[in-house]
Fold this sequence. Notes:
With 360 residues, the chain is an alpha/beta fold. 44% of the residues lie in helices and 16% in strands. The strands form two sheets. Strands 3-2-1-4-5-6-7 form a seven-stranded parallel beta sheet, sandwiched between helices. It has a six-stranded parallel beta sheet with strand order 10-9-8-11-12-13, with helices on both faces.
Amino acid sequence: MARGVVFVVGTRAQLIKVAPVIVACESRAARVRLLMTGQHKETMQDLIQEFGIRTVPEDAVELQERATVMSLLRWLPAAWLGVKRKLSGYSAEGGDWIVVVHGDTLSTLIGAAAARVTGLPCAHVESGLTSGKLLDPFPEEISRRLVFRFADLALCPDEASLEFMRRRHGARAVGTGGNTIVDAVKIVSPRVGPDLERKYLVASLHRFQNIYQQARLSELVDLLVRLSDCYEVHFVLHPATRKRLEDSALRAKLEAAPGIRLSPRLGYGAFLRLVAGASCVLTDGGSNQEELAVLGVPTLIMRAHTERSDGLGQNACMEGAAPGGVFEFIRSGAYQQLRQAPAVDQGRSPSAVIAEQLLA
């Protein structure tokens, strides 16, 4: 029996990143399972339809939006048991299965650990990426380092991550020639260039350090309010961010600013169209950093450290590297020096490379 592939997916960003790999496996008539851990619910089915995924997802636990720390802690043991039970069932069916996890979330760690205890090989997409700081970003960096130890096949997006895995870990390490986000953007192409006549900013902020430290969250809200005097600001609210703003009464402050537009989390194509037309994007998301590097949109990474090199020194810079500080850097229009032409397709699809490795 031909090899089967189980994709363990928990978050929206993970689904976006592995969707092109799932499609590539489906196009090769492979046996595919899509196992959802229930970490995110909002827009997940929309993404499956948007990417044209044919495989019907299976739920390890009931899908809900886990928007608070307590809800994640309650979900964690149930997700672990649910994923382990499902993988044990696939294994009992017989045949050759490989479990695929992506990135650095709690769902990644659950999937990789469950593969280990059920005796199934584990492939890690985006393996070898590291910030070099154990607690930053937290808890993603800890999750990432644990998953490195569980992986049997490390699928590394660049030379640095490939060398890291070959030097530090026992997994078979393979370079994918790039990040699958390139394929995701290509599949759901925004087909929109920068609108230089309409000046607006986009903010997308959801990292633990940014939303669960009250002083930091207040500082970011104040920054967006100040920027809204100069630009229209579209603040795309992740469920966890929305909950934190409401709990701290900071949402009212944002709503009182005439230049700020608050929106729920958008469909993938709609989000790409929004950021493709932005003057500048302020984000703490690793996937956003990669997408914006593909699109060439000026980007400020609102974090102290990033494990990704995508766009740095080209269309993107770290918050702390913005001359004069973020407000002055944007207000003065200095961000325009970051604008780059959209990336040109330079060869093989990373998702096709990954699919070949999974099915070999």
